[in-house]
Amino acid sequence: MTLADLLSECFAVDLEETWERERTATPVRAFAVQLHATGCSLRETKEILRLLGVERSHQAVWQWVHRLADSGHNPPEAKPKRVAVDETAVKINGEWSWLYAAIDIETKLILDVELFGRHGTDPAAAFLHRLSEKHDLSDTVFLVDGYGYQTALSRLGLSGRLDYVERNLIEKWFHTLKMRVDRFHNSWVGSHGSVREWFIQFVQYYNFQRPHQALDGRTPVEEVTN
After folding, report:
1. Rg, the chain, Cα only
2. Cα–Cα nearest to 153, from 83, 79, 74, 98
3. Cys bridge to 44: 40, 68, 100, 110, which one at CB 3.0-4.6 A?
4. Residue range 76-83: average pLDDT?
5. What is the DSSP secondary structure assignment for residue 77, as one 8-state letter?
């Protein structure tokens, strides 16, 4: 995504309520949040704004990111047919945590992400339960890579099968995520809440703004809603 592309985009008008008390114009804040979501550090974002004539601290940029994450810009409700689900390890304050994620194979939509302090059958079941509260999974088949997930699916009455080919899409998404993370966060320093908000911001960028080659240049949200 080019600088011109970022400058030409703006978040939905209904997000004005999120920032109604801010003194910086909404397009500027939207641009800053998008820069951060696409891989710039807070200080790099601050410097880019300075070059554009906007003097704000990196703490101010973080507040914008934080408030937008709290506004709950969630993906649209979906009724997926095939969903790949998996987890990946991330280091926070020198200790390992696990990011769980689920992606719709057809639309490439990231359905949800959640951060857990451990991995295994219980966190997998908790993540799948959360997923079932957000989306219609009545006709969904989950593509998984281990029997722990199958146990979790059985607990919730959901369907699934072992798959090591189609579910590679979730591995590719984790790779895309970590390419961004590794630029600045080989080991996260901060609260689990702040790290989770960064992941939410990246999911928002991936679902709503990032064109997908397999979708003929459409975003996952456009694929779901059109």
Report:
1. 18
2. 83
3. 40
4. 89
5. P
